[in-house]
Amino acid sequence: MFLFILLTLLFCSASNDYIFKMKDLARFSRGASESAKAAPASRNATASQSVPQVQLLTISDEEAGQRIDNFLLRVCKGVPKSHIYRVLRSGEVRVNKGRIDQTYRLAEGDVVRVPPIRVAEKQETVVPGAEFRILLEDSHLLVIDKPAGVAVHGGSGVSYGVIEQLRAARPQAKFLELVHRLDRDTSGVLLIAKKRSALTNLHDQMREGTTDKRYFTLVQGDWKNARQHVKLPLFKYSTPDGERRVRVQADGQPSHTVFSLLRRFGDFALLEAELKTGRTHQIRVHLSSSGFPIVGDDKYGDFALNKALQKADGRRIAFKRMFLHAWRISFRHPESGDTVTLKAGLPQECASFLRSLEGGEEGELLPYGMLADAEG
I want to staple 168 with a disulfide (CB 3.0 to 4.6 A). Which of 111, 129, 198, 245 is the partner? Predict the structure, then answer.
């Protein structure tokens, strides 16, 4: 091969008066050989960088107490749940060099071996940091007044929500987790834990039924009773397009809501809903199934009514959201044990709509402290 190259170059030199030296040929051959070796080496280096590595993670005081499966779901973001449970069952995940099952609760100082888990790369979503109206903040808790139209977390077609925006706005925060959830179109009091101990304490309170959560809601219909208990079992299911829904069904989860009539506004009634259980869409489905759809509810409401209310009519202004607002919560503080009661008064757009139902007349809509502008 080299002889062929040499003869070719010598032939060219005869016509171009170019003297090709043997050392140039040797240098050319050596350079080509080194380039050929370097290319796969470079590819191997790139490939090794993209291959996931084993991680050894030491559990901090803030991370202690949570189950290993929940810990892995948080650490291995983007990895499907099924894959997390597969590596747990296979024994690839170790704690202190020993095998564990998915129910193991982590202790401070535990060393967790997380195996290499390959995740399909996807474009990173830039989350804009945001702060919200703060009702309470200390070293254990952050309690905000969530506006309607904002999801509490990303997922189901939503890139990000309140918790992701808070984390983006507070990069120095070591721990921020939702204590509970509110529907995207529900406004009001939302609890966020700043410590793992606070999260587990509040979850225990909610499981024991010692917290007190109250909502304002406006329904259409002639509501009769001053106080009404609704106990209907709720069953969660998914529509053919994957949307989460709930319906009343005999084998559903026991669910209990207490409704109190606050005031009538013509064909509408303003109610306070007190949750005795905390099921998905509980207030919405209990009211819809009782024949009193929530104004603006796009899943369980009266769609024709919702469409009509989106346009102003005479003195009644347009209303374009769901009339459901988490206005008050009471719980024991996770550190002191003292009872804490927090309020987020009725939002201005809801209060303005109620006043327009009365023809814009002045007067007290609700007792002091139930309206947003009455809150200090």
Answer: 129
Please tell me the total count of domains within the chain: 2
Evaluate whether 87 touches 99 at the Cβ level (below 8 Å): no
Per-residue pLDDT of 310-352, as tens digits, reads 999 999 999 999 999 999 999 999 999 999 999 999 999 999 9
Query: Would residue 183 show up in a list of annotated catalytic residues for this protein?
Result: yes
Residue 184 lies in a domain: yes
Q: Could you tell me which of 168, 151, 167, 203 has the C-alpha nearest to residue 334?
A: 203
CB atoms within 10 A of CB 203: 13
Amino acid at position 333, single letter:
H
Identify whether residues 198 and 334 lie together within a single domain: yes
Q: Does 191 map to a domain? A: yes
Are residues 2 and 29 in contact, defined by beta-carbon separation less than 8 angstroms?
yes
CATH code, 142: 3.30.2350.10
Which residues pair with residue 248 across a beta bridge? 234
CA proximity to 218, closest of 277, 280, 262: 262
Q: What is the pTM of this model?
A: 0.72
Structural domain of 277: 133-374
From the candidates 24, 101, 110, 183, which is the catalytic residue?
183
Q: Which helix (H) or strand (E) holds 205?
A: helix 196-208
CA separation (Å) from 128 to 31, 152, 170, 185? 50, 14, 11, 20
